[in-house]
Every structure is written in C-alpha cells, then in structure tokens.
Amino acid sequence: MKYLKTPFSEEDIAGLRVGDVVSISGDIFCGRDAVLPRICREIEENVWDGRGIDLRGGVIFHTAVSPAGVGPTSSNKLEIEGSFETLSRAGVKMHLGKGAIKPQTVEALKENNAVFAIIPPVTALLESQTLQRECVAWPELGMEALYRIKVENYQAIIAAAKGESIYG
Prior knowledge:
CATH superfamily: Fe-S hydro-lyase, tartrate dehydratase beta-type, catalytic domain
CATH topology: fumarase
Strand order of the largest sheet: 2-3-4-5-7
Strand content: 25-35%
Helix content: 10-25%
Number of helices: 6
Distance between the termini: 23 Å
Order of helices and strands: EHEHEHHEHEHEEE
Radius of gyration: 14 Å
Structural class: alpha/beta
Oligomer: single chain
Number of strands: 8
CATH class: Alpha Beta
C-alpha cells in the first residue's frame, strides 16, 4: 500500500506502477460527463484560472456527488476519457474511475506524468471515508456539478502508468 496525500508531487506520480495499491487522502475533485468537457473548454480558452481552482497535483474522480454518496462511473465514456489529456496537461496527476481506457489515453497519461486508477463501485464504503463536500463550479448541474471533496484513505489500484495498462 502506498499512502498519498493531495496535492501530489511529480515524484509521487513518477514512483507509481501498474498494479500498485494506493490510499488517497486530501482534497479531490469530482466530475463526469456534464462537467469535464466544460473544464477542458475553459482550460483551452485560457479562462479556467479565473475560477481560482487549482488542479495542479490534483485528482479527478469520475463520479457525481449525491446525498447517497459517491461511486465511480465508467471512465471510458467519450466525454470523460476525452478529458484526460487536457486535464493532465493542466496538472491533474490522477484520474480515478472504472473501466478500460484506450491505448492513446494511456500514452497521453505517460506524456504528462499522470496515472489512471480504478476504484471498486463501493458507494457505502466511500461515503464513510468522505469527510466534506463542496460544490465549486456549475451548481445548476446538481449532482453532476464540479465538487471538491475531502477524503481519508480512498483505496484504488493504478491501472495505467508509464505507458502501460492492466487492460493490455
């Protein structure tokens, strides 16, 4: 088990290998289909910095945040997987979700010293390890808005790193 605290350093990520089990504590951002393309558009249009939300060294968890808790959604949805490269270039170091991702996405992660980790769909367990939640952008999207949550000991498995993937 490797214990990591956000924000991650370049060295934290450089030391991870496919198959490593990690425990994540600190602030992570939550977003999926509705919000990730918006973030990417703002990054590409150079307006994201005006929000005052620093993604560098951060984690994006592919989930919605509801009163029932959080649980991973499929990371290989077009809107989600399509965000990996832009978000990694902007400093996101870990993408957290579930499902197989494309070889091109694995390569984009490698080029940006970022990783993809999978987390089992265990909403009840994750809820007990979620300490705080705050909507930080697009509240009109409800549970699909961009949230920052404070977590303690979220456990995940590194599924893509250094150009390698557990999916082949």
